Structure formats: structure tokens, C-alpha cells
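Re: [ENG-882] Designed sequences occasionally contain unexpected residues at chain ends

Forwarding the minimal case from QA. C-alpha cells:
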């Protein structure tokens, strides 16, 4: 296990105890969970918290739920964040509509977005999310398979030398211009090594 946390206490915790951008969102430990709460929710606003380290071939697991803004926000996990190519992958989960999407982002733009509907995403309860990030991407929601993909290297990258390693993060994104309150809570974080597939 590379990283594990239950968020019971900020003392010895692995995530920031305060927001890296307090003008836009609050972040911190509350009641045995990690909270991300937007102070000025607006459509397109993304609040994210980076996890320590650079990782290759890992599985990110976390419990996540939306407390407020259920109809106006999505839970987001990011992996393989590679500043050299301006590239990353984002898993977005929309509990109120029981759907998710896994997108490749290059230079701040999603290359292709397709929403998948999944019957085991509860609207008002916690979702157990597992995202395998390596040369293959795999999504599991509440212990059920959701999607597998084998992405291509970003444009300009040498496919013989391109590395699957990168940063990872958790967060919440506003998808409605009518949002007034948006809050996500996270628990039971794990980042484990996985063999290359």
C-alpha cells in the first residue's frame, strides 16, 4: 500500500488541513471525513486536492458522496497528471443521474466525453470508487465493473518512452449555473500498487 487514510484526524494526515485556494473552496478534516466545500460555486468550477507523490500503475480507491449540490455537481478523481504533456485522466461521477465519464484531458480540454449510465450509483449515499491508473484504465463503482480503456499517448509523446506515471487527485466539479451549495465528503482512501497489464 502506497498511501492509506481514514481521515479520522488531521494530525498525521496525508492531505492538506486547509484549502490551497480558500477564496474558491474550503478543504479539511471534519467528523472523520475529508471535506471539499465550494465557497463560490459556479458552473465549471473545479476544486481539487492533490495526493502526495508521483505514481505509476496504481489503484486509487475512495468512498465519496455529495452532501449538498447533488443535482449541481459531480465527484471527480484525476490520475496520470503529466505536466510535461499537459495531460491527465479524469473520472467524473454524477450520482443524481447515475452516470459517469472517463476522459483524457490535454492542454485543458477533454478530447472526448461520453457519459455511461450505471445502475449501482446511489444518489444520496456513499459510493465506493476504484480507479486503476496505468497503461490501462479501469473503473469500478461499488464493487461492480464500469469501464476499461487503453489510452494512446498524448500528441507529441514518444510511445516508446512515454511513462504512465503521474500525479493523482480528488475533488468536486460544478456542472450547473444554478448551484448555490456544493459539498463533497471523502473517506477510506487507499493508493495501492498494481502490476502492469
Amino acid at each position: 500500500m502506497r498511501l492509506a487514510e481514514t481521515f479520522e484526524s488531521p494530525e498525521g494526515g496525508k492531505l492538506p488541513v486547509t484549502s490551497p485556494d480558500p477564496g474558491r473552496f474550503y478543504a479539511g478534516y471534519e467528523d472523520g471525513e475529508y471535506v471539499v466545500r465550494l465557497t463560490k460555486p459556479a458552473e465549471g468550477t473545479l476544486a481539487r486536492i492533490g495526493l502526495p507523490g508521483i505514481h505509476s500503475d496504481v489503484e486509487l480507491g475512495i468512498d465519496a458522496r455529495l452532501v449538498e449540490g447533488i443535482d449541481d455537481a459531480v465527484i471527480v478523481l484525476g490520475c496520470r497528471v503529466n505536466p510535461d504533456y499537459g495531460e491527465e485522466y479524469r473520472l467524473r461521477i454524477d450520482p443524481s443521474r447515475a452516470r459517469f465519464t472517463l476522459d483524457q484531458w490535454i492542454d485543458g480540454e477533454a478530447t472526448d466525453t461520453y457519459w455511461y449510465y450505471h445502475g449501482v450509483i446511489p444518489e444520496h449515499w456513499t459510493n465506493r470508487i476504484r480507479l486503476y491508473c496505468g497503461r490501462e484504465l479501469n473503473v469500478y463503482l461499488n464493487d461492480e465493473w464500469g469501464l476499461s480503456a487503453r489510452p494512446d499517448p498524448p500528441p507529441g509523446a514518444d510511445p516508446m518512452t512515454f511513462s504512465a506515471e503521474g500525479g493523482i487527485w480528488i475533488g468536486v466539479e460544478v456542472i450547473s449555473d444554478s448551484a448555490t451549495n456544493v459539498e463533497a465528503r471523502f473517506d477510506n482512501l487507499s493508493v495501492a500498487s498494481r502490476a502492469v497489464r
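QA comment: On inspection the terminal residues look reasonable. The two ends are 18 Å apart (CA to CA). Proposing we downgrade this to a documentation issue.
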